[in-house]
Write a structure and sequence with these properties.
alpha/beta, binds zinc ion, 5-stranded antiparallel sheet, disordered N terminus, hydrolase, 3 domains
């Protein structure tokens, strides 16, 4: 584990306070979700197009790296799912994720609803059935758009069957712990021989782990103030120099090794997404007094979540006794060595006992504590100031960034539409 929780805890508690402020109630449970499963940041390596080289050249590397788990986006294009099914089933059984990249690998934005339904919704079931035939119990929850072409219509169909969709971008877009991303359009950094050098990819992995000097980073969409979640898009894993999207096996191995060395959580897209989605839900979970304790309950954020979502939580000991125990399904959960508890988010409830009196969040943990709200455009250009997370009506319709600041508080940055 490479994570200092002390700063993080303050920040999370703060965001709990904000959630309460907005809801006008003060009953969110005294639990803090631990960012990125106890790591400083996360990286999800994704490999598209069901290519044979991913089985031949990548699988041996992955088999030798137990801390690295990745996502494969499968397609039936050119019979690739059928031809490589045994190899991908073996990868699934080794803990890697299988996601959906359509039957046709064609331009989804040109499709009718009926065509989308077949290519996006029904193919997810086909992947599961094919993997089952080869002995792998797979639940598809992640999608990736071919050519990263997306639209509101495409998103609405993806959302019917998947809890996350990956698009892409050529810049180093990344996701921060306390900022809910657009789940139907997560940005990924694309590897290509002409586009990204190995050293540029290594820098991106350092930035995700908050290693380096970022004092002068332009506030752009996100000032770099902490670790983050980086998503990387790869295709062929081979030495074929003729293929611009291929990466040499030695180079991908170098990237994996750096990610592990940096203490990043190297986990599949669906795993990290489910964990972060769970965080936003649990931070608002309500608790109720029951005999000899409190029950905490919540709802699932999407119908198509992974079968299991282990979520690492800590007690907010400013509000509850440090002797509090946590139970799920009648069993007491043994704390980890760092005092955190790994709960099963998919169980939708837990019981807290020996809590003492649960106190309310501190009043200063409120959005009202922020005194300065600065408006930026999406390129980081400062446009003006305002007095809350709202864009004044004098601004043209569009998407803006607001950064809230106050002495002694961690700045919060949010994307706001008007
Ligand atoms: Zn593709």
């Amino acid at each position: 584990m490479n994570c200092n929780h002390s700063n993080r805890s303050t920040f999370i508690a703060l965001s709990c306070g904000i959630a309460l402020g907005l809801a006008g109630i003060s009953t969110a449970a005294p639990l803090i979700t631990v960012p990125w499963n106890g790591h400083v940041g996360a990286v999800s390596f994704t490999f598209d197009d069901a290519l044979e080289t991913q089985v031949l050249n990548l699988k041996p590397l992955l088999d030798a790296m137990p801390d690295v788990h990745v996502t494969f986006f499968l397609t039936a294009f050119q019979d690739r799912l059928k031809d490589n099914a045994a190899g991908f089933a073996a990868l699934a059984n080794a803990g890697h994720e299988m996601g959906n990249h359509t039957i046709s690998h064609w331009h989804l934005t040109d499709y009718t609803y009926a065509e989308l339904n077949q290519d996006v919704v029904e193919f997810a079931d086909t992947i599961e059935a094919t993997m089952a035939k080869y002995g792998a119990d797979v639940k598809v929850v992640s999608f990736a758009t071919p050519f990263c072409e997306n639209s509101d219509k495409v998103k609405s169909v993806i959302d019917k069957r998947h809890m996350i969709n990956r698009d892409c971008t050529y810049d180093g877009a990344r996701t921060f712990w306390d900022e809910e991303p657009e789940w139907m359009s997560l940005p990924a950094k694309i590897w290509s021989r002409s586009g990204a050098t190995v050293s540029e990819m290594l820098n991106a992995l350092d930035t995700a782990a908050y290693i380096g000097k970022f004092d002068n980073s332009i506030p752009l969409e996100h000032p770099i103030t902490d670790g983050s979640w980086l998503i990387v898009l790869q295709h062929d894993v081979s030495e074929r120099m003729i293929d611009n999207y291929a990466i040499n096996p030695d180079d991908i191995k170098t990237l994996f090794e750096r990610a592990v060395k940096n203490g990043l959580w190297v986990a599949p897209l669906g795993t990290v997404a489910a964990y972060q989605r769970a965080h936003f839900v649990l931070d608002k979970a309500i608790f109720n007094k029951i005999d000899n304790g409190y029950s905490v309950t919540w709802k699932l954020p999407h119908e198509h979540m992974p079968k299991s979502v282990p979520l690492r939580v800590k007690l907010d000991t400013t509000r509850v006794s440090s002797k509090t125990t946590i139970e799920q399904n009648g069993k007491t959960i043994t704390p980890e060595s760092d005092g955190s508890f790994i709960i099963e988010f998919m169980t939708k409830s837990l019981t807290m006992r020996n809590t003492g009196t649960i106190s309310l969040p501190k009043p200063q943990q409120s959005i009202k504590a922020y005194t300065r709200f600065t408006i930026f455009d999406l390129h980081g250009k400062k446009l003006g100031i305002t007095n809350s997370f709202a864009i004044p009506e004098t601004y043209p319709k569009g998407v803006y960034i607001i950064r809230a600041e106050a002495k002694g508080l961690t700045p919060i940055t949010r994307k706001i539409s008007r």
